[in-house]
Amino acid sequence: MNKKDLADLRKEFKLSSYMMPIKEIYSVYLKKDNGEIITRELNYFEMMDIEKKELYLDNFKKVLTGTIDTKVFELDFMMKNVDENTIDEASVEESTQIILYNALTSGSSITECADKIVDKISKHYTYDTDIVINFVKAEYYKGNKKRNEEADEAIDDYVQAIEFILCSINKVDVPKKVLKFDYSEMKFKPTSALDITVNLSSPLDGFMFPSFSSEYVDVNKVIYYSSKSKQMNTIFVEEVLESSVKPTAIEEKESFNIILNTVVGDKIKPETMQEIYEQINEKIEDSEDIEEEPTVDMKEVEKILENSGIENTEVVKSAFEQVCGGDYDFKVKNIVPDFGSKSIKIENEATSIIINPNELSGIRQVRDKDGKKYLMIEITEDVEINGFRLETEDMELI
């Protein structure tokens, strides 16, 4: 599932959507202290009032909001290759993947599936507050190709009907004691400890099953949402979703930099760094019309480094084994800076400068005859500081 797939689905979480009919919404209130379920509520979406519908839609939309590999993650289930022949009564009780799969294929209400997920949450993870767990079961009509108006094509040829389940875990807030106005009695009253609210605007965790794109539906993957940027709730992922934890975008970048540092050393020329980044970034440019996320593996990294003039490329394999445990596909967008913006930071204790990756070759760190170091940046226009243009001086540094 890529950024466009998420954005397209997210747009349909609105009252006027006809591409995503919502069937059921099921909510469970779970106590923090003892894992007791206070109440359960099943609603048929079309029978709910408009205000309540809007609150739920905004809540579920949040679970699909965020940068991929930073707040939204496509994860593999630990149990793979589900099909109808693998489903049996025992596995339904044990596997989150089978529970969700069965909920979509059995035609039954979402309640049985949701209660099993709630039970897993209660057993394996305790939040800091009481929580309300919301589930929605819906159908999404997604175009899988452009229709040829001249050809005799049925609607099924270009529209894919996808059933999915989405879940959000939400914090229960107990407001501070304040004075409120009761319109029913036309009196001012202090708030009660029973006047709790459910924070639907900031889910703590969430997920959607299955993962899908314009090409296919993948029941071996789940979309996980984390409230904390660049950080996953590993207990929730492993014990509740029963999925394998994957590196975040930051972790991938750090791993790649360690590999690069192992091969190149701790010093590198700016033009060499630019050459490496440009070659990797070409994979993004070459894949603009392709749905798949561009990646680079061990052999490609080795070839890129060779083409950039790095001689010590025989250690690439051992570096991958040390850092990644073997060959690994790095997502290109996670390991190279954004060539469309100033995304390279140059800094030390006294200086912090941000430049475009295309400008790396115009930078030099030099030393003068007295041993003092300088940072030289090639520029085409005068530099301004607080509205003043800097005076240009002639200086022999080398």
The residue fraction in helices comes out at: 25-40%
How many DSSP H or I helices? 11
Number of strands: 20
**Tally of discrete structural domains:** 3
> Whole-number average pLDDT?
87
In one word, what is the shape? globular
Low-confidence stretches: none
Mind telling me the C-alpha Rg?
27 Å
The portion of residues forming beta strands comes to 25-35%
Structural class: alpha+beta
Major pleated sheet? 8 strands, antiparallel
Distance between the first and last residues' Cα: 52 Å
Brief synopsis:
The chain is an alpha+beta fold and 398 residues long. It contains eleven helices and 20 strands.
Tags for this entry?
398 residues, alpha+beta, eight-stranded antiparallel sheet, two-stranded antiparallel ribbon, 11 helices, DUF4317 family protein, DUF4317
Task: Describe, in plain words, how this protein is organized in 3D.
This protein is an alpha+beta fold. It has three domains: 3-245, no CATH class; 250-335, no CATH class; 344-389, no CATH class. The protein is built from eleven helices and 20 strands. Strands 1, 2, 3, 4, 5, 8, 9 and 12 form an eight-stranded antiparallel beta sheet that branches. A two-stranded antiparallel sheet has the order 6-7. The model has no long low-confidence stretch (mean pLDDT 87). This is DUF4317 family protein. Pfam families: DUF4317. InterPro entries: DUF4317.
